[in-house]
């Protein structure tokens, strides 16, 4: 599904290398977690994959189902099936949550040459999916993320994910700022979306989210590279021992 | 009106014109119609003023009124205080009167109507039935109307080519006709109210208009009548080098209500065209008028060539107690916009509201806002202005809130937001506030923001392309004002926002 090979990325504005030869492969149907200390380049990886401005790719490549991602516009990547759940979802004043989502869903359908979703069908789908995430009708009408609590913003990201039905989901520290109940809702939402044709890349600081979303593989990232990969146990080990020993070992 | 309708091309309609329409660029109304026109000679003098008056078959008092204005105008100079830069206008190098030849004798049936005139209104998206009437066919009023009714007065260059639903309105006692007809048919009303809100001597452009206005719309709603449908005027400048000077007069008698819509388009030409209109609204006791405008004159091309110079004086006089007026404007067109729809709150407890979206892209310049003049006790006003600047455009909000000594316990609330797209445009806010009593309250809030890269990236990461993303963010920014528009107009305005900002990013 997602293949990243020897990716080197620097900031466009300054001479600072962030990713230094990162390689990673997430096969279809799997959940991979990326853990790592602050400043290791985790968020940069998610932004570069989704096409945010401000980064320069100096070497390497990333493909989604064999198609090169890095030459595509952000909206083309979205239409190709990539989704990023933001660490800090953005507020858009005056634009209703529902309007935003319908515009997004139909933009993707149009890009894929599909017919637009009718209002009735859209409403039916969004109501059902919102219910599962404990999002009420009021929240669907409010402007996108404006005045939302931390938990509401993250649940809203998962709602978008559910509606857009991407094949490759990247979650950037979705657990940050969530209390236990909100985390469970988010995790349930994600688990409901798991399937043989959909993959997840879950970026997190802490192991606790991985109690709820069971990963197939855990990667440890440091200084712009993956330094170690392993099973779910690796996350538990980090939780107990911290990154110190592991990073020293990796040199 | 964002889609070009599939045209059922009639015999004699110029294929080429139709195809041009269907291949239009971002300004969707930029095509012109080749129609044989009668022009008055170029330039302006007393003879031209007399000629316009004569063409409209006006009585002597009207001719004198115009001449008085013209003499006054010759002593005046163009106002220079607005934040607008444009070359000197040669007022002698303009045509002041242009009329489709086919309008000289009113056609009796569809076969007699100039098909090009018909096609023009069809292309503009005005429903066929209305369009039949617009082209001046008698008897079309009798055909059953489809959907919701909106009566239309269409002004093509200097003349009104037709007004729809007149009979039905007449049953309710509402007079809706061209102003030239009103001058002939209802002189007592015109004499009483014309110039009573915007005097002949008001300002350079209004005075020019008073001298040379060729047509426009007239509305009178009698006491206690709620106008049974929305009224609208559709202005189209077609002829080249021709100024359009329409004059609108609306009178809402005691306890009446009317909602009025105004739309404007013009062909894409590389010379500038002059437009100087006057709108006067008289609101009597307990009456209410809503006036909505979608102004989409040709704004000039992306290099700033061409476009309409739009100098407009619009004013409502809440003359008696509890009169209410609401201005809503969506200003997306014109190279130059100079426009301040105002409310004179003379009656006690009268109310004025002004909702505005002004978009300036490429090299457009807009200097627009409102005046709320509180004269009566317990008067209320509310201003919500949303200015959007993109490209190299300059967008100025200029507003006056004035509380006179007698206007005790009055209130104003002003909210003035500017949005910038890119780093070469400008937004300016110039609020004037005068308070001459101690019991009134004036609030002013203003913000300036940029379309945020994070917002655009967020939208794009969900699959919208850049232009869709900008349109969505900007429509969100304008929401308070869009909600104040009548339903159909709001839809049209939303898509217009998107069209106006095409090419503003990337």
TrEMBL record, chain A:
InterPro entries: AAA+_ATPase (IPR003593), ABC_transporter-like_ATP-bd (IPR003439), ABC_transporter-like_CS (IPR017871), FeS-cluster_ATPase_SufC (IPR010230), P-loop_NTPase (IPR027417). The keyword Glycosyltransferase does not apply. It comes from the Bacteria. Belongs to the ABC transporter superfamily. Ycf16 family. It comes from Paracoccus maritimus. The keyword ATP-binding applies. Keywords: ATP-binding, Nucleotide-binding. This is Fe-S cluster assembly ATPase SufC. Transmembrane segments: none annotated. Residues 2-248 form the ABC transporter domain.
Automatic annotation (TrEMBL), chain B:
Belongs to the iron-sulfur cluster assembly SufBD family. This is Fe-S cluster assembly protein SufB. Residues 235-477 form the SUF system FeS cluster assembly SufBD core domain. It comes from the Bacteria. Pfam families: SUFBD_core (PF01458), SufBD_N (PF19295). Residues 170-226 form the SUF system FeS cluster assembly SufBD N-terminal domain. PANTHER family: FES CLUSTER ASSEMBLY PROTEIN SUF, UPF0051 PROTEIN ABCI8, CHLOROPLASTIC-RELATED. InterPro entries: Fe-S_cluster_assembly_SufBD (IPR055346), SUF_FeS_clus_asmbl_SufB (IPR010231), SUF_FeS_clus_asmbl_SufBD_core (IPR000825), SUF_FeS_clus_asmbl_SufBD_sf (IPR037284), SufBD_N (IPR045595).
